[in-house]
What we know:
By secondary structure, the chain is mostly helical.
Amino acid sequence: MADDSKTAKGASAASDYEAISEQLAALRADMSRLAETVGAITERRGRSMAADIAEGLGEAKHYAEARGRSAEAQLETSVAAHPWMSIGLAAVAGFLVGALSRR
């Protein structure tokens, strides 16, 4: 009788061990799939963020170009309207740069 209870306990322990091993294998597989899913989500979000940054930089470039063209047009208009004042300002700026470079 004592041998039967030991055999039953041994068989129960073996089946418990197998059940735990199967559950751990399933858990490993689930964790692997979860890691792949998180990786894919991160990759998609990273690509989306990079696209947003590139779009923002493109908009900033266009804005800076437009502002530069606008400033250039205003300068040309001002020089055309006041040519003698523009020549005088350029001469004064040249004298200042020359005086500062001698020191």
